[in-house]
Amino acid sequence: MAAKLGRARGDEVMITLEALNAMTRPEFVAALRGVFEHTDWVAARAARSRPFRSRLELLAAMRTQLAQAPAEEQLALICAHPQLRARSVLDPALTAASTQEQRRAGLEGCTPAEAQRLEELNGAYLAKFGFPFILAVRGHDPASIIRRCEQRLRHDAGIEQATALREIGRIAEYRLAERVPDAAA
Prior knowledge:
This protein has helices spanning 17-22, 25-31, 41-46, 55-68, 71-79, 96-104, 112-129, 142-152, 157-179; strands at residues 8-9, 12-13. By secondary structure, the protein is mainly alpha-helical.
């Protein structure tokens, strides 16, 4: 598979659409592992829609698979995401992508008051909805994450599950952009 990879970008190797389209299904799934947290079935099902002409077309195919999945699979994907918390960036169980995203949002630099409030909100959220609070944290800081969680705690379960799935789609978009250049790139 090494010959099918694209150019390097930072510490990650970029994978071209041409390479993805040419891969076997298991290679395709392995190349996109982690775009959806601990969930390979999204990429496996999207592989059937190849060839992709753009990264956005690939993302749309993956989001379609998520939207068409049975509710229990969607819930399992939501539950596969880690909680956003100040100490989680030190958690070895986090994926590298989650660690980096949470670090960029400043969660490891939370004040003690912010860390405590986030823990309280996570507990209340989990108790109310039965799954972790999920937010695409790019562009957020601890204060905005706390505000967003407080706002979303006012939702009903159906609205919040749909919101969590949209946020997962946004996270996937960011992760895919870090791994696959668009066709014109």
